[in-house]
Amino acid sequence: MFGGTANLTVRSPLGLFLRIFAWILNILFSVLEDVYNSRFVDTASGWFACADSDVESLHVYFRPVRLKSSRKPQVVSEFGGYTWKEPGHIFNPEKSYGYRSFRDKQAFMDALEMLYREQILPAK
Q1: Which of 58, 81, 86, 115 has the fewest CB atoms within 10 Å distance of its CB?
Q2: Which pTM was predicted?
Q3: How far is residue 79 from each of residues 35, 66, 73, 119, measured CA to CA in Å?
């Protein structure tokens, strides 16, 4: 079928099919591109301000959150650094990443709630 004898001219059935298929792919690509480009971009989360970023991404540890004047929406994308190992949901039981670890779930939940109440919710 796709050998040297395949008729791919504009008016052949296969040629028409391929043109229609390419047209549909073009429309699909255009729609998917619009959806993809509708997301917001956080180019350098927390490290430094970047002109290409749609938001100002803040990483706040060891201090209360203070929002500064900004031309972009501000996102507190990381804060607290609290960690608790949920049994059965640990990738590496030997290692942990965080700035404050908890041995039981209730202590973790209490500290996290206090963190939200005292540092995140009152942020201005």
Answers
A1: 86
A2: 0.59
A3: 30, 12, 17, 9
27, 29, 7: which is closest to 16 by C-alpha? Answer: 7
Q: What is the largest CA-CA distance in the chain?
A: 76
Asked if residue 123 has pLDDT above 90, the reply is no
> Which structure tokens are listed for 61?
């540890």
What pairing do the DSSP bridges indicate for beta strands 100-102 and 82-84?
Answer: parallel
pLDDT, tens digit (0-9, with 9 covering 90-100), for 4-62 = 777 878 888 888 998 999 999 999 998 888 888 888 777 766 666 666 788 888 888 88
Per-residue model confidence as pLDDT tens digits over 72-90: 888 888 888 999 999 889 8
CA distance to 65, 84, 102, 113, per residue, from 109 (Å): 20, 9, 9, 6
Of 90, 88, 84, 75, nearest to 112 by C-alpha is 84
Give residues with Cβ within 8 angstroms of 53, minimum separation 6: 41, 42, 43, 44, 72
